[in-house]
Amino acid sequence: MDASEIKAILERPISQELLGRDLLRMAYVAADGTPRNIPIAFTWNGEQIVVCTTKNAAKVPALRRNPRVALTIDTEVHPPRILLIRGRAELEVVEGIPEEYLQINGSYEMSDAQRVEWEAEVRSLYDGMVRIVITPTWVKLIDFEDTLPSAVEELVQQRAERQNA
Question: Strand 35-41's sheet: what is its strand order?
């Protein structure tokens, strides 16, 4: 999939709505070779997905070994809206707390006092974090109106062919 196709899909209003959510599921290959799929908070910077994690998280050495990931951002309503993203993770150890981590968690409802307390707790706990930047290499938006899963699209086409025969 080329960059212009990726950009066109990610600029669709439904994609933008999904990229504005606070959680995604990230699939990667763990150190033992088995698949993992984890929920994780994220932010979209207009070109890349950014997630932050602890320096001792099991996903860090796994992603260094195999940086390929698959992401899912979706809704809990009918019909579901689903944004599927595949990409490559780049990891950077950051001293202190990455600004994206504060931004990601700033979307949760907190009073000003709770926010100050939360941020103080975070700063006292982490001496640094790993910033994971994922550049999309493939995307698909499924909205069950204009776009369907590939297998369902195939069934719709087969049904149309049968009806026209």
Answer: 35-41, 23-29, 68-74, 82-95, 128-142, 49-53, 43-44
Q: pLDDT per residue over 25-58, tens digit each? A: 999 999 999 999 999 999 999 999 999 999 999 9
Closest CA to 22 of 46, 48, 49, 60: 49
* Exposure letters 30-62 (e unless 16+ CB within 10 A, then b): eeeeeeeeeebbbbbeeeebbbbbeeebebbeb
Q: Which of 69, 99, 66 shows the shortest CA–CA distance to 86? A: 69
Tokens found for residue 116: 């100050």
Alpha helices in 57-111, H assignment, sequence order: 59-65, 99-105
d(CA 112, CA 137): 39
In angstroms, the CA 106 to CA 119 distance is 10
Residue from 89, 76, 91 nearest 18 by CA: 76
**Phi/psi at 22 (5° precision):** -105, -15
For residue 49, the surrounding DSSP H or E stretch is strand 49-53
pTM of the model: 0.88
Pick from 106, 144, 136: nearest CA to 14 = 144
